[in-house]
Amino acid sequence: MACDHTFTLDAHKLQRRYLQLQRALHPDNFGQKSVTEQEFSESQSALVNKAYTTLLKPLSRGLYMLELQGMRIEEGTDSGADTEFLLELMEINEAVDEAQTPEEANKIGQDTKGKLADLTERIDAALREAELQTARALLAQMKYHANIEEKVKEKLREFM
Length: 160
What we know:
- Belongs to the HscB family.
- Keywords: Chaperone, Cytoplasm, Mitochondrion.
- It comes from Pleuronectes platessa.
- GO terms for molecular function: ATPase activator activity; protein-folding chaperone binding.
- By secondary structure, the chain is mainly α.
- The protein folds into 2 domains: about 10-55, Orthogonal Bundle (Helix Hairpins), CATH 1.10.287.110; about 85-160, Monooxygenase.
- The chain has helices spanning about 10-25, 35-55, 60-70, 85-100, 100-130, 130-160.
- Helix 5 runs antiparallel to helix 6 (about 130-160).
- The longest helix has 28 residues, at about 130-160.
- It is globular and about 60 Å long.
């Protein structure tokens, strides 16, 4: 995808490269080619899609970067999350559930975006310093906040 191997990246540059690769590899361009070329196009186009979606979002990008270093964060294995953090998340989740207006949900969403932006900066710094355990712990927190962000989006759709 012609990206630097860093946590922060230029999303516009990533998108341009994605579109460039898809113009060249998309299966629609290979309808009159051999079966082998069509299959190659399909597999390579799928890989480009996967790479793009992985790199586009900070959480999946960070998890991928840790995986490249031999670390994985498995679902349900964040036993290291401290009680205070988990209580805070429970309160935020309850607030989302109890939000009566789009404004209330938006406020929670904006707070969550701020926390995600802060985590993004901290993860970037940890990865630049090769502090993989710190990056791993911060990415685990990011997973929780990303889930809250999705829950807020669902709540806002309910108001429509």
